[in-house]
Amino acid sequence: MRPLAVPLLTGLIAGLVIALVLTIVIVSQPSRYTARIALLGVPNQNAPTDSRAAADYAAVVAVTMPGVSELVRTPGALQQVTDQVPGSPSVEDVDKSITVELVPASSLTRISVSAEDPQTASALAVALGQQVIDADLLAPSGVFRFLDNQAPEAVKTAPDVQLGIGLGLASGFVLGVAAGAVHLLMRPRVYSRRQVVRIADDPSLPVIQVNSDNSLLPLRGLVATLPGVRLMPVGSGAAPAVTQLRRQLALEKPPASDDPVLLVAKLGVSRPQDITSARALTERAGRGVLGVALV
After folding, report:
1. Under a CB-based contact definition with an 8 Å cutoff, are residues 118 and 33 in contact?
2. Backbone angles phi and psi of 248, in degrees to 5
3. Could you give the count of Cα atoms lying within 13 Å of 36 in the half-sphere of its Cβ?
4. Residues 31, 118: Cα–Cα separation, whole Å
5. Residue 251, Cβ neighbours under 10 Å: how many?
6. Residue 142 is part of a domain; what is its CATH number?
7. Short-list 107, 144, 150, 114, CA closest to 129
8. 186: nearest Cα among 2, 11, 1
9. 1 vs 196: CA distance, rounded Å
10. What pLDDT is recorded for position 213?
11. Are 72 and 149 contained in the same domain?
12. Domain boundary residue among 143, 169, 186?
């Protein structure tokens, strides 16, 4: 296995899990539909038509338009709207779902409202627009009217499946890379023979990777020339590998205290410092190290 394969696999799995979970969370959100109604302020046909009245109308529009956003959110107006629309959400929910857009340098305003049902969203938008018209904010110089007399069509705005998939994949990629990097930096492991050779830094120390019966031949030849050999697991996870290798090498004689040591490391489990420490301890005890077997 290549040195970066396990960290990459860890990051890939973590990324896919995160992407899947985040996508499911976003896509499983309740459906939301948004309807938008447009209101246009026009001069009052019954108002005086002199230049002062025209100037008054422009001033009234400039001063009054920002008040539309406050009007549609007043508790009284919201209560009337929710009473008029069957199946309407609560006053608080309607308040949170309202968006008011004032078109600059004009008397046009757009009111958007969302709900879990498209008919409810459309009816709420019309009712809110009617509240603004009935309030007669532009009087006496002007009046509000619906820009389109047809009921607005509600559009599904949530959950956004494409957005959910995109966010899930992006987040999964970023967090997956982070998980792989953390695995590589915080929990280094031995993944290849080349890595062990580099760690040992001793050309005379045999490093044999056992991955088939043919690869056991060098070990059998090495063991056959000695009266006894001690297999030492490198790291806590290598103990089962020692038992298996002892059986494969047919080592039936119990090792003596002065027998040379063969370090047994498990790929993807043993750590570089485990190999270094085991070799140092063995040599400090006055016993020779035959080599390192990778299983």
Report:
1. yes
2. -70, -35
3. 12
4. 10
5. 16
6. 3.30.70.1130
7. 144
8. 11
9. 13
10. 60
11. yes
12. 186
The DSSP bridge pattern shows strands 32-43 and 142-146 to be: antiparallel
CA angle 156, 161, 165 (to 5 degrees): 160
Structural domain of residue 24, as residue ranges? 5-28+160-186
Looking at the chain, the number of H-run helices and the number of E-run strands are 11, 9
The answer on 233 and 280 residing in a single domain is yes
Encode 158-186: b = buried (16+ Cβ within 10 Å), e = exposed.
Answer: bbeeeebeebbbebbbebbbebbeebbee
DSSP reduced 3-state for 10? helix
Do 21 and 38 fall into the same domain?
Answer: no
**Which pLDDT value is given to residue 263?**
84
Q: Are residues 63 and 148 in the same domain?
A: yes
Of 155, 177, 207, the one marking the end of a domain is: 155
pLDDT score for 54: 54
Residues 24 and 63 in one domain: no
* DSSP letters spanning 33-97: EEEEEEEEEEE-TTS--SHHHHHHHHHHHHHHTTHHHHHTTSHHHHHHHHHHSTT---HHHHHHH
Do 198 and 242 lie in one domain? The reply is: yes
Could you tell me the mean pLDDT of each successive run of 10 residues in the chain, 295 residues long? Answer: 59 80 80 94 75 66 89 94 93 95 91 94 95 90 90 86 78 78 67 77 78 70 73 79 78 74 81 81 80 80
Task: Please give the tally of structural domains in the chain.
Answer: 3
- Quote the pLDDT of residue 1: 44
Amino acid at 191: Y
The sign of the CA dihedral 89, 94, 99, 102 is: positive
Sheet holding 207-209, edge to edge: 207-209, 289-294, 261-265, 230-234
151 and 58 both lie in a single domain: yes
Domain match, 46 and 76 both: yes
